[in-house]
Write a structure and sequence with these properties.
- This protein is α/β, with parallel strands linked by helices.
- It has one domain: Spore Coat Polysaccharide Biosynthesis Protein SpsA, Chain A (Alpha-Beta Complex), CATH 3.90.550.10.
- It is built from 7 helices and 11 strands.
- Strands 1, 2, 3, 4, 6, 7, 8, 9 and 10 form a 9-stranded mixed β-sheet that branches.
- Strand 1, helix 1 and strand 2 form a beta-alpha-beta unit.
- Helix 5 (about 175-190) packs across helix 6.
């Protein structure tokens, strides 16, 4: 089964202004000496695990991304990135998808082991989650029955939730086909400002999604200046 990857990297990252005035947050540096960016790290990881086709959805600062990565990846342009969210960025890739796809948020730093656990699972629809994460209002929370996802949204209460969604998911076969149908339907209804997990939630009655726990592995979603600092000083050094 051929494996593709889609990296959702169209947004600006307004909460990181002024750092993201000219560049998307996925181009923020992880390493002061080499200047390695979040996006370069992700692409390198995907190349390392053998993903042959990597698509990056670009918007804000796209010329800089294209100049940096050149032909290592293919590009899908979200021209309305400032008026849409990740569900629409993913929607733009639907006609290009084949049998299996990794969907990755462009602001997440994580080890290769996360991808390994997804690929080694038997589930056609599976997301990485951390049952050890501290859950707050900003957390994309996941509720489970066993290992099956029964809800995923930010406004779940911490009592209902079992962990945090990393933003690294794998869909194969029938699960991918159902996700594509759901995303098409949501965008047709004008739901272009949702995060992609809203589509996962919408498809739960139609096809199961499961979770693999990555508790204890070093990872971080970079939304705020303090996240970037922790990524540079703590998370990235532990991944090298």
């Amino acid at each position: 089964m051929s494996l593709q990857a889609v990296i959702l990297a169209a947004g600006q990252g307004r909460r990181l202004l002024p750092l993201t005035r000219e560049i998307p947050k996925t181009l923020l540096p992880l390493d002061g000496s080499t200047g390695l960016t979040i996006l370069e790290y992700q692409v390198g990881l995907l190349e390392e695990v053998g993903v042959k086709e990597i698509m990056v959805v670009v918007g804000h600062g796209r010329e800089r991304i294209e100049a940096l990565l050149r032909d290592r990846v293919s590009y899908i342009v979200n021209k309305v990135y400032d008026r849409t969210n990740s569900i629409y960025s993913f929607y733009l890739t639907l006609d290009l998808l084949d049998e299996a796809v990794l969907i990755i948020n462009g602001d997440v730093l994580f080890p290769k082991e996360v991808i390994g656990r997804l690929l080694n699972s038997d589930y056609p629809g599976v997301l990485a989650m951390d049952t050890g994460a501290v859950l707050d209002d900003e957390t994309m929370k996941v509720a489970l029955e066993g290992s099956r996802v029964v809800d995923i949204r930010k406004d779940l209460s911490a009592e209902e939730a079992h962990g945090e969604n990393l933003g690294v998911v794998l869909f194969r076969g029938k699960a991918l086909a159902v996700l594509i149908e759901v995303v098409r339907a949501m965008v047709a209804k004008g739901e272009v400002n949702s995060w992609i997990p809203a589509a996962f939630r919408e498809m739960l009655p139609l096809h199961p999604i499961y979770a693999v726990d990555v508790k204890g592995l070093p990872w971080i979603e970079i939304d705020f200046p303090q996240d970037l600092e922790r990524a540079q000083k703590e998370i990235y050094p532990s991944l090298r």
